[in-house]
Amino acid sequence: MSKPKVIVTRRWPEAVENHMKELFDVQLNENDVPMNADQLREAFQTADAVCPTVSDKIDVEVINVDNMKAKVIGNFGVGFNHIDLDAAKAKNLVVTNTPEVLTDCTADTAMTLMLMTARRAGEGERHVRNKEWTGWRPTHMMGTKVTGKKLGLIGFGRIAQAMAHKSHFGFGMKIYFYDPFPPSEEVINKYGAIQCDTVEEVLGQVDFVTLHCPGGGSNTNLINAERLAVMKDSAILINTARGDVVDEPALVEALKNGVIKAAGLDVFAKEPQVTEELLTMDNVVLLPHLGSATLDTRIAMGMRVVENLNAFFAGEPPRDRVV
Ligand code: DGY
Questions:
Q1: Which of 19, 35, 233, 276 has the greatest number of CB atoms lying within 10 Å of its CB?
Q2: Whose CA is nearest to atom 5 of ligand 1?
Q3: Strand partners of residue 53
Q4: Are residues 157 and 76 in the same domain?
């Protein structure tokens, strides 16, 4: 029997690419140049499975291509707001993602940003590299204490729970959260977390806010000027979820006017573009969407795509089917 034809849109870790070569008739993207809409359309016309990632736009124009051959989208990434799920469903395309394997690394990145912003680590590092440091003094670069403070989580899924775990047990933080689909009482009690009825209720009483909800739909610009104004002026906002959850121009204004103290951002509304003003602000830490970027996790994500494809081609339900 011939092997299924699989097209991968970007470079994946070598171990996963080699594994895919054994299993599938795979077309890799060795020079890692993003595929344009025409190339993506062609991929859907020529492969049994297309494996995009979070930076590929798999919209209705791509999915509604004539002479579609593909039957499955094996997404490399847990988030799927870059894929038009309704269009995929209408075309009977199965879509899978890669949950769980990136939970800890993404929470670690949120923790990194929380500590960096609170303790002014980006600013301090620039200070040393620029040879501006004149020596220790009692009032130099005082930051915000993290241990024992209040952390508010918007969304309380897997990554938020990992963040709660690290923050509560590692840093003695008191956990508050908002999630329209909360986890079990058992999970909530594990972190001694306080469930709030609204986003505002969380924002108004915590020292740090970390975002862990999906992007797109009704979450677009969830953190807007009005909600930023509800936060304490000493509070810090961390986003490792999706850029569009935060109204970026409103955030710039809030940071400029002291509405909130600082922000740590791993994701941006128009990646890889970053709002110019953020680049010049010292109370902001900026990372290039590194949430899951460890070799272990990226291999695990790739292997999870392979597992999903294997199940699909064996006629079994893929473990991580989204639609
Ligand atoms: C995802 O998987 O959705 C992340 O944003 C990429 O790590």
A1: 35
A2: 79
A3: 76
A4: no
